[in-house]
């Protein structure tokens, strides 16, 4: 079976720097000041996903005491708290919390963010081992963790509800995420666009064949031009 190739997505919404994410969880409310100016792609992506309702009913799927609590994986949407916990411990075959995505990726911004510091309450973009592989999963930092500063993009900071963040556990739910302070007209226009579609293995091979054919024709044209000279 071939590998699906996810497209790299650039959000249509450009943050104004005033956006605050109000995250309603089964443990309580968390308010996060988003770093839209420091990490516009990551924050813009999060804002668009929240506005689309993508995060509603997802569960937090990992909690590492003193380090991070992770959420935003779509594989948890239809699971109950006990099921998420069991799946996270490998007890449910075929369900792997932490492996889902939004069917696209975004670029990393930890290198360009001038304030990319992991402290208690930082909101950060999770990603796989490859560069630019973040998508929709995020985590809250539960302490200062400078070893993460040059690996993961920080795109927000908790301003209310840090006690709730520290109480979050595996299986706790995201009820909703509302974005305050956004340009509502621009955001509505942004989410009216269709999201990019992943390429199937067949499409990737066909694209490679077309590129090879174009290079072959260009090489023949260059050779013919050289002979004429």
UniProtKB/TrEMBL annotation:
It catalyses: [protein]-peptidylproline (omega=180) = [protein]-peptidylproline (omega=0). Residues 191-220 have a biased composition (Basic and acidic residues). The keyword Glycosyltransferase does not apply. Residues 17-168 form the PPIase cyclophilin-type domain. GO terms for molecular function: peptidyl-prolyl cis-trans isomerase activity. It holds the Pfam family Pro_isomerase. InterPro entries: Cyclophilin-like_dom_sf, Cyclophilin-type_PPIase_dom, E_coli_cyclophilin_A-like. Coiled coil: none annotated. Its EC number is 5.2.1.8. It is an enzyme of class 5 (isomerase). Keywords: Isomerase, Rotamase. Residues 190-229 are annotated as: Disordered. PPIases accelerate the folding of proteins. It catalyzes the cis-trans isomerization of proline imidic peptide bonds in oligopeptides. Belongs to the cyclophilin-type PPIase family. This is Peptidyl-prolyl cis-trans isomerase.
């Amino acid at each position: 079976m071939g590998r699906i190739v996810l497209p790299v997505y650039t959000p249509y919404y450009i943050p104004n720097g005033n956006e605050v994410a109000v995250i309603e969880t089964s443990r309580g409310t968390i308010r996060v000041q988003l770093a839209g100016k420091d990490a516009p792609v990551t924050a813009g992506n999060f804002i668009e996903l929240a506005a689309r309702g993508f995060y509603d009913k997802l569960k937090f799927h990992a909690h590492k005491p003193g380090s991070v609590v992770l959420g935003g994986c779509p594989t948890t949407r239809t699971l109950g708290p006990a099921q998420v916990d069991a799946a996270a411990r490998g007890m449910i075959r075929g369900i792997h919390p932490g492996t889902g995505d939004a069917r696209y990726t975004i670029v990393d911004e930890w290198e360009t963010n001038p304030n990319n510091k992991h402290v208690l309450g930082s909101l950060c973009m999770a990603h796989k081992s490859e560069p630019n592989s973040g998508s929709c999963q995020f985590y809250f930092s539960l302490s200062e963790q400078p070893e993460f500063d040059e690996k993961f993009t920080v795109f927000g900071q908790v301003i209310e509800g840090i006690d709730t963040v520290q109480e979050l556990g595996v299986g706790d739910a995201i009820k909703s995420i509302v974005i305050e302070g956004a340009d509502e007209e621009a955001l509505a226009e942004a989410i009216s666009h269709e999201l990019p579609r992943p390429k199937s293995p067949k499409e990737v091979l066909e694209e490679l064949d077309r590129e090879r054919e174009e290079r072959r024709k260009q090489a023949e044209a260059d050779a013919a031009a050289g002979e004429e000279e």
